[in-house]
């Protein structure tokens, strides 16, 4: 009885989003599915590196996978509020399941080619273009504003726990059974999230269609709304820099493992798990402090810290030191992304939220093609350690310039008020 009451207190105090029945269905489904997703991620990266031996071609896969998000996120944001988000997610998750099983069949039948991996990555990117902003906007429908930050933190906890478990299982699977099992188990894992979605009963927010207002006008209206709001604009600019230059682990870590540390896929899986451990710690930290709400200052500080850790990653020549550095990087990354995500969703008006989150998806994930291609090129030219050094420098300078520019803008805006008083 005491254990049960202690568990109830823990949920109510620190994981209060789980008190919502609809969210529990969604969350438990994600717990299973995301482990499979990370197994596929690690399997796909090592498979491409095995097929081609080229860091650039590995980076190109990431570019192709996230290119649809870059091209079509803004259109997705203007569309998804016009349909029930639960129905959209059922479609996108089913597509992702079919694509994972397709990769598994290609590997098991020994017909896999680099071009097939590119094709599947592109189709998955198309599905994710709709899926990502839909999932972001769906949270508020199933938990409300009060528990939104806690839900986002719990999502990050799940994502990063899966980042620890998934690569560990995936590395063993690849070493003893082959990469095909990573894709097969990922495909089967989608059954859990699809089942959870079918159980959710929530009142959907569907934006009323305005007569004589085209989709391009709605996109323009959303961008203008963001540009007029200093908090939204500064947050999204920082997310653009971090999203482009800091989240290229799928390219740099396998190359660093093979070419700098001269180790195998087991070490690669361990390093990805270290990144996940740090990220999980960051997610739990955000969950425990979620009642305080998101703060712009935290987004600003974390952007600078992340840039410094990227530079440090390039200086490490030991697998153990790199593991520690990646754990610290993961911790800062999750503090940054969870705080920024919550800040945008809670600050945006209801009628603009999906469009704001589509821009977030664009600059956070849609910038990945540029980052993957750039880091793949740098890893091929300067080595993975050199690429990390450059990413730290290229991340730090624009972040500092953005922070200074908005600080100056705030000061300039305050001066007329002071003069008037």
Going by CATH, the architecture would be Up-down Bundle
Number of strands: 0
Total of domains: 1
SSE arrangement, N to C? HHHHHHHHHHHHHHH
What can be said about the biggest beta sheet? none
Count the helices. How many? 15
Terminal residue distance:
61 Å
Q: What low-confidence regions span 5 or more consecutive residues with pLDDT below 50?
A: 416-421
Helix percentage: over 70%
What structural class is derived from the secondary structure elements?
mainly alpha
Give the CATH superfamily: MFS general substrate transporter like domains
Principal-axes geometry comes out as: globular
CATH topology: Growth Hormone, Chain: A
Q: What's the SSE blueprint?
A:
Blueprint (H helix, E strand, L loop, with lengths): L1 H13 L6 H32 L2 H26 L4 H24 L5 H30 L4 H29 L3 H20 L15 H14 L1 H16 L3 H12 L4 H24 L7 H20 L3 H29 L2 H15 L3 H53 L1
């Amino acid at each position: 009885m005491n254990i049960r009451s202690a568990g109830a207190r823990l949920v109510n105090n620190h994981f209060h989003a789980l008190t919502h029945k609809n969210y529990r269905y969604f969350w438990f489904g994600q717990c299973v599915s995301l482990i499979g997703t990370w197994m596929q991620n690690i399997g796909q990266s090592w498979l491409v590196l095995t097929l081609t031996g080229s860091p650039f071609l590995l980076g190109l896969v990431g570019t192709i996978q996230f290119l649809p998000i870059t091209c079509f996120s803004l259109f997705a944001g203007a569309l998804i509020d016009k349909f029930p988000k639960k129905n959209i997610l059922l479609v996108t998750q089913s597509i992702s399941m079919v694509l994972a099983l397709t990769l598994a069949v290609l590997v098991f039948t020994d017909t896999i080619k680099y071009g097939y991996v590119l094709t599947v990555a592109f189709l998955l990117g198309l599905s994710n273009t709709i899926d990502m902003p839909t999932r972001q906007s769906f949270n508020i429908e199933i938990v409300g504003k009060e528990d939104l930050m806690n839900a986002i933190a719990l999502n990050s906890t799940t994502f990063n726990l899966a980042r620890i478990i998934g690569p560990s299982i995936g590395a063993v699977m690849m070493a003893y059974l082959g990469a095909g099992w990573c894709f097969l188990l990922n495909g089967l894992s989608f059954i859990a999230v699809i089942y959870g979605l079918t159980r959710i009963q929530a009142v959907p927010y569907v934006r009323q269609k305005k007569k004589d207002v085209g989709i391009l006008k709605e996109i323009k209206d959303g961008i203008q709304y963001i540009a007029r709001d200093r908090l939204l604009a500064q947050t999204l600019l920082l997310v653009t820099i971090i999203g482009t230059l800091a989240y290229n682990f799928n390219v740099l870590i396998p190359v660093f493992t093979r070419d700098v540390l001269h180790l195998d896929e087991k070490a690669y899986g361990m390093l990805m798990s270290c990144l996940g451990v740090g990220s999980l710690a960051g997610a739990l930290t955000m969950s425990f402090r979620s009642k305080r709400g998101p703060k712009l200052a935290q987004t600003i500080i974390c952007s600078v810290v992340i840039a410094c850790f990227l530079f440090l990653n390039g200086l490490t020549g030991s697998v153990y030191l790199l593991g520690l550095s990646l754990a610290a990087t993961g911790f800062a990354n999750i503090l940054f992304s969870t705080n920024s995500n919550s800040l945008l969703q809670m600050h945006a008006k209801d009628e603009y939220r999906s469009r704001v989150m589509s821009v977030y998806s664009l600059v956070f994930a849609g910038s990945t093609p540029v980052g993957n291609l750039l880091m793949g090129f740098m890893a091929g030219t300067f080595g993975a350690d050199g690429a990390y050094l450059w990413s730290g420098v290229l991340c730090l300078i624009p972040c500092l310039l953005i922070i200074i520019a908005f600080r100056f803008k705030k000061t300039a805006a305050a001066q007329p008020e002071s003069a008037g008083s």
